[in-house]
Structure formats: structure tokens, C-alpha cells
Request: fold
Amino acid sequence: MEQDKSSVFVTEAALPPEETFLEHMRGILRSRQFTNHGALVARLERQLRDFLGLPRLDVCSNGTAALQLAIRVLGLNGKKVITTPFTYVASVTSLLWENCEPVFADIDPGTLCIDPVQVEACLEKHPDAAGILPVHVYGNACAVSELAGIAAARGARLLYDGAHAFGSRLAGKSLLAYGDAATCSFHATKIFHTAEGGCVVTHTAEEENRLWLLRAFGQRGEKYFCPGINAKMSELNAAMGLSLLPEMPRRLQKLARLAAIYDEALHMGSSPLLRSVQIAPGLAWNHAYYPIILASSRLLERVLAALAAQDIHPRRYFYPAMTKLPYIHNQSCPVAEDICQRVLCLPFWADMPESLPLRVAEIVRKAIEA
Ligand SMILES: *Cc1c(COP(=O)(O)O)cnc(C)c1O
Reply:
């Protein structure tokens, strides 16, 4: 379907400064090195390590590959793993693709991240679970201290899906610093992107070395160590990241300002029919998304219809709960299944005009009050 110019969607991909991007692309054409850990990928990795303060951050082809690589680096492939039903499907397909058995633990209704009490209960029931895969939903922070305590007590490995976590900081550190390993996605719809891309954060030389091998066929030089895969980032993707990274401090500030405009225009906190996600205490949130939680699914349908009438298309993110996937059987998480029915991510990106959140908020408010 042809998309009308005036249509508004949940996000628009960030554009790099054009001349910077083209200069990188011309450099690639001159060098004829398109991939295999070329100069731009190496430079992007260095700049990301500095920007995020993560010395063992390594980039790869996308956020799903990042998860699959990390699952193997931590030795979780083929094992039972506790995870959250409130996420994008890639968290779950990564586990299934690595022959893991996902066991779903319900979420905290405030933060929408996995509930440590439910994780404990799951581990009690499944003492053979070898790992925990929580998700920093919308860039919000999971209960990292509680989860670290539980994982340590049970000898389970803790892998965070930090696909949304770029730029969020907790206790002076990037949110991606937490856990035994963490992943991020640099997909075009994420706040920092390389068109397609992602990264894995590890914490020991041995694990980082294993990641390098797995990412490139299990080969180093003329030696073949293990059956790896090809999950390398190309130079073209790195060019996008190098062009956008210097913009990130400004873009993060812009997102915080736009979120404040939404909060005020929606009179957030004053209506029992509408609430926001509870942000973890002490988190410097990246404002990766602007999620709202309606009081009922009927109300959500009404808001959706009112916005659609103005050619505005927010996203039901996440919907449905992962326990409702056709290939997941006999698992239920009532809190997540309920919230999935009435959560919405409103149009939100750093370059949106400040008039847009005002316009969207007015339509939402009228629909709620109707
Ligand atoms: C986007 C996303 C992924 C997958 O990342 P890709 O780069 O698109 O493969 C995984 N988990 C979550 C929570 C995501 O939002």
C-alpha cells in the first residue's frame, strides 16, 4: 500500500548527517573493503566502547544474532531458560533457535519487566533451568540487583536482552553493563541504529574470544576451532553507526523533552484511565519509546480508532504476550497477558516536530474522555 505523506507511524528511522554518511561510503568504495571487520567496524566498536563505557562490546549483524551468539557464549544453548512473556518475539525465537526451552515468568505490572519473585518461583519449579533472559523493556531497567542475587544463588547465567537499552544509565553505568552478558539491537527502528546491526557485551577475555569465534565461522586465521556462524557487521552498516553516534547526546536530550511534552499534554498521572510505565528508581532513562497503558482493552480500541481516523498509527508493542504464540504451549502469565491487551506505543522519534505529540495527545485525551 502506498503510504500517504501525512500518515504518522510509531517511529521514523533516524537519518544520519548526509555528507558525513556519504563521505564514509566513498571511503568504502575507495578501499573496496566491504566487510570482514574492516576499518569502519573497528572504529565503530572503539567509539561505542568509549561512549557506553563498555570495554568488551562487540558488534554483529543484528540484535537477534546478538542474542543467539550470547546464548552460546554463556553455554545456554539446549538448556532451559527463564524469560519474560512481555517482549518482542525475537527474544523467544532466539531461545528456540538455540534449542533452549523457554519458561515464562510473569512481569511486574509497574515496570513491565520480569518480576524477580516470579523468577524465583519458576526456578523453584524448574531447578534445571540454566539461565535467565530478562528484557530491559522500553529501555527501563529490570530489577538488576535482585536478579543478580537470584542467579548467583542458583548458579544460573544472567543474559539481558538490552535491545532497547542504548543510552539508559543505572548507578553511573550503561544498563548494558549488567548481567553475565547483554545484547543490544541497532535495527533502523531503534534509537541508535546501523540499519541492521547489534552488539554483545561480555565481561571476560575468554567469553569475548568465544564470541569472536562464533561470530565468524569459528575460524581464526587458518585455524578452525568450533562450528560458528556468520554474524559479522558490514562496513556499510558501520558507516551508518559512525555517522549517527556523535548525534546521540543531542538526540537523547530531544527524546526526554518530547516525552515531557507528551506527559503534560496527556495530563499523565491525573486520570485512572491512563498511566505510564513505572521507571526503575535511579535510572537515567533513554526514553526509547513513549508507552501508555489504558485501563481496558475496550478503551485501547477506542483510542486506536480515534487515531486511525486521523491517519495516525501507533503500535501495539508488545502484543500479544509470548505465552500466546501458536508455537508456545501450556504456559500462562496473567499479568503480561492482561497488559498486552491495553498497552500502546505512541508515535515517538527524536526528529518529530514538537507539535505532533500535542496533536496525538489531544486525540488520545478526547477518545478517553468520550
Ligand atoms: C528489536 C528487538 C530485538 C531484535 O533485534 P533485531 O536487531 O531486529 O534483530 C530483540 N529483542 C527486542 C526486545 C527487540 O525490541
Notes: The radius of gyration is 21 Å. The first helix runs from residue 18 to 31. The pocket of pyridoxal-5'-phosphate is lined by residues 62-64, 87-88, 90-91, 135, 161, 163-164, 185, 187, 198 (CB under 6 Å).
